[in-house]
């Protein structure tokens, strides 16, 4: 992959690439503030962070590359182009790069992309920081992770999962896919967020028992613009769709004394732990987010379905 090629080169990323990534800086500042006040910030690895590290760039928009662009980016790209041509000629002495080839090559590597790849590489300033984080953590009686625990992962303890993810993101993936790439891995699995609750209930029971927790909190699967309780509150899906692509809905989960509360538009709304309270919960959210079509559909379905 491109990352692996660049690690061995003399390309350098901007002096402080994280200044272009406000979210990373905010996490760092928040962590410092929390430690100062006797608390702690736990940042978890998600599928997009992993993809950036191992070079799957499907969801990287041009703006992310442009953020790493410097006055030296054109020279950096030209040097990389010359090196690529030399490698191709060594592999095929008959190879010749015409104008059309160069144009296509340049279009495939926008300015800033090479610096982006260095920064996000396993040893880069961003990639190395991400690799220090965990994929799964347990705090008190709650299990936190990005995607979900699938049946295929259930025989692994938390430490084993985190160590395996770190190993893979440090270049230990090889040619085979692993936990960080598989749809059944903890960064990608959606079964507990999307499958029928009655079908998934036995599996959730095993997850809770295996990790000795009362609930699981996941992100990764946006849908209703708010915190979505499932399985009578034992599974909480907290990806509210913060990205503009999903509506830009802002909400957060507050856990105090093992009680869950949704914070939305400066309102505190208790998260229900029974099916009978789901309708009133979503109706309260809809008062705050009246333009959420998916939420209106869920309310309609709940109102017309017997408990």
Shape descriptor reads elongated
Work out the radius of gyration: 23 Å
- The count of β-strands is 8
Query: Which CATH architecture of the largest domain is right?
Result: 4-Layer Sandwich
Q: Compute the separation of the termini in Å.
A: 51 Å
Name of the level-1 CATH class of the largest domain: Alpha Beta
Largest sheet: 5 strands, mixed
Global structural class:
alpha/beta
**Low-confidence segments:** 3-20
Query: Mean pLDDT, rounded to whole units?
Result: 89
Our count of helices gives 13
| Major sheet: arrangement of strands | 1-2-3-5-4
Would you tell me which CATH topology of the largest domain applies?
Purple Acid Phosphatase, chain A, domain 2
Count of folded domains: 2
Strand % is 5-15%
Walkthrough of the structure:
The radius of gyration is 23 Å and the shape is elongated. The protein is of the alpha/beta class and 307 residues long. It has 13 helices and eight strands. The protein folds into two domains: 1-43 and 58-131, no CATH class; 44-57 and 132-304, Metallo-dependent phosphatases (Purple Acid Phosphatase, chain A, domain 2), CATH 3.60.21.10. The model is unreliable at 3-20 (pLDDT under 50). The strands form two sheets. The chain has a five-stranded mixed sheet with strand order 1-2-3-5-4. Strands 6-7-8 form a three-stranded antiparallel sheet, with helices on one face. Strand 7 (259-264) and strand 8 (267-270) form a beta hairpin.
């Amino acid at each position: 992959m491109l990352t692996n090629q660049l690690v061995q080169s003399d390309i350098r990323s901007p002096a402080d690439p994280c200044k272009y990534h406000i979210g990373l800086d905010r996490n760092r500042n928040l962590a410092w503030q929390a430690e100062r006040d006797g608390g702690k910030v736990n940042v978890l690895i998600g599928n997009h962070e992993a993809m950036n590290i191992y070079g799957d760039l499907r969801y990287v928009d041009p703006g992310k590359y442009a953020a790493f662009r410097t006055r030296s980016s054109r020279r950096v790209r030209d040097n990389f182009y010359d090196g690529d041509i030399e490698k191709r000629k060594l592999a095929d002495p008959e190879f010749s790069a015409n104008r059309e080839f160069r144009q296509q090559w340049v279009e495939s590597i926008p300015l800033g992309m090479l610096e982006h790849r260095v920064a996000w590489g396993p040893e880069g300033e961003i990639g190395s920081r991400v690799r220090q984080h965990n994929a799964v953590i347990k705090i008190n009686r709650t299990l936190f992770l990005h995607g979900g625990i699938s049946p295929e992962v259930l025989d692994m303890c938390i430490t084993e999962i985190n160590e395996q993810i770190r190993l893979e993101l440090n270049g230990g993936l090889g040619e085979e896919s692993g936990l960080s790439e598989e749809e059944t891995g903890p960064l990608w699995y959606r079964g507990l967020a999307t499958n029928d609750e009655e079908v998934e209930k036995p599996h959730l029971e095993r997850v809770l028992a295996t990790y000795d927790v009362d609930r699981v909190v996941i992100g990764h699967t946006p849908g209703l613009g708010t915190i979505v309780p499932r399985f009578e509150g034992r599974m909480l899906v907290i990806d509210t769709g913060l990205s503009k692509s999903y509506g830009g809905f802002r909400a957060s989960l507050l856990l105090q004394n093992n009680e869950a509360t949704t914070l939305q538009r400066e309102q505190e709304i208790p998260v229900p732990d029974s099916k009978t309270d789901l309708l009133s919960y979503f109706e309260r959210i809809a008062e705050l987010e009246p333009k959420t079509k998916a939420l209106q559909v869920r309310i309609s379905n709940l109102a017309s379905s017997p408990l």
